[in-house]
Amino acid sequence: MTVRIMSMTDAEHHAGLGTLHAERGNLPLDRVDVRVDITGLTSQVELTQDFVNVFDVPLEATYVFPLPDRAAVTRMRMSVDGRVVEAKLLEREAARRDYDDTIASDRRAAIVEEERPDVFTMRVGNILPAERVSVALTLVNPLAYADGEATFRFPLLVAPRYIPGAAMADGPVGDGYADDADVVPDASRITPPVLLPGFPYPVLPAINVGIDPAGFTLSEVRSSLPAVSTDDGRIKVQPGERANKDFVLRLRYGAEDLTDSLVLVPDADGDEGTYQLTVLPPASVAPPRPRDVVLLLDRSRSMAGWKIVGARRVSARIVDTLSTGDRFAVLTFGDRIECPAGLPDGLVEASDRHRYRAIEHLARVDACGDTELLAPLRQALALLRGPQGRDAVLVLVTDGQVGNEDQLLRELSDELQHVRVYTVGLDQAVNAGFLDRLAKVGGGHCELVESEDRLDEAMHAMRRRIGAPLAHSLALHADGLNTIAATTSPVRLPDLLPGVPLVVTGRYRGSASGTLTLRGTTVEGGDWSAMVTGQRREAPAVTAEWARAQLRDLEDRYVAAAGGLREDLEQQIVDTSLRFNVLCRFTGYVAHDSQVTRVVAEGKCNTA
């Protein structure tokens, strides 16, 4: 198979991967190796990170790093001095105690914890002088698919995030540059230094990708980083490319390759299994119906450069596509909210005059101020509390670089159930985890744009998707398949959008046979349905992907819950994580070496 690899251009050449922090100084990563194996619409990633103690005493190091927000971390290994130690997954506090006890006994240990869906912390202790320690993680990650194109995205940078709220009086819980705040109590754990003090260049990643189309017709591969094909048919990012943005690989598959499917994967033990239903709607748009559309454009200082230019273009195109039967409002925000001059307050008819005024306002928008996102989201949702019979649509154009994701979902989750939310993320290191969560809670879609070159195709896709859905009010019905209650993910089935596959996963008990039928209502009020017969498969990746999706749904419910329900949800999250061996915010992978290290004075190790 010969496929041309096309480069997607970029603009920024600053920033780095993160830092290893220690009391004696910063320890730059010596090596980051990302080995990716893509099979159809699923990928398995082996991420190996090496670092070396360049000082003359043992150290403990802390490292904050990004991972794909939808990836399931299913394994961790630590290699040191020729030995490989397999990590175990424990409840988070138990993992920390295990790690601390191991460090206190003068043995090497490593722990990995999740801070956000796409931000993780690693600590490695008792690293001897001149010693190399390697920590490897295994990830299972689904590829996003729409309009015949599959996208693999791997973040290489924890971008700076705006931290709102009042600083807390207590000491920081992490080593980041931001103070912990009342609405972001772990701010210091998600804000690592971007450039390494004392080191002129960030780490250079080694990225190697193998692609098995698995029956799909692969016609084109596009890479956000310059890459070449190797003799063994793999794709290798060219040496010297700095880790200052997401690595994005787009695969063009045949338009007719993906069909409706129901995969049934029995567990290795017991009488349960996982199902994965995929329904592919046509790319054609549905007949229009009246909409109320509120467009939010982030004009904060983090949007400076090509991002604000792209945001203006995307926003103007959305306004220009509105019809006379629609009503709309445009809100631009940083640390204050502004509306187009000359337009009445609230929703206005999408007349030529009103749309022209809005586009005039958008053309003058420049980047300034902090990213205060809660107030504009509240105002937008208030505007959409309108009469029944009109689609309520919220479009957010932003880079998503905020640290108060949990606060936003906690305070807005109820209102988000009554609108359809579309997020457009513009950045070379976008906060994909938050924007995808927001879109899923709002039953919509997240579109990520990593460069100006992708704006046109993204705008074309958004134009079709913010129109009337092909079907709404979807519900799942089983026949012959004993599905298990409260395991379906996503919890809120989104509307059926043109060209965007709807993937629903869950658990079943008993025989791996039967059918699932997805039923909904068309724009005209008619019935719509798709029935798919199950096919038994041996595909453990499907179970890992379901577990990760289920954990994210439970975590979003946990954020919005209170009292006893919150405690019950936390226990469900821990139980699911441990049963299926997938890392989450309440568990941690910990590995400890059996060999005692050589120590310094009084038998103690210097710690970060």
From TrEMBL:
Pfam family, any one: VWA
Protein name: Uncharacterized protein
InterPro entries listed in its UniProt record: VIT (IPR013694), VWF_A (IPR002035), vWFA_dom_sf (IPR036465)
Domain VIT per the UniProt entry, residue ranges: 13-141
Domain VWFA: from-to ranges: 292-466
Source taxonomy: Bacteria, Bacillati, Actinomycetota, Actinomycetes, Mycobacteriales
Organism encoding this protein: Mycobacterium ostraviense
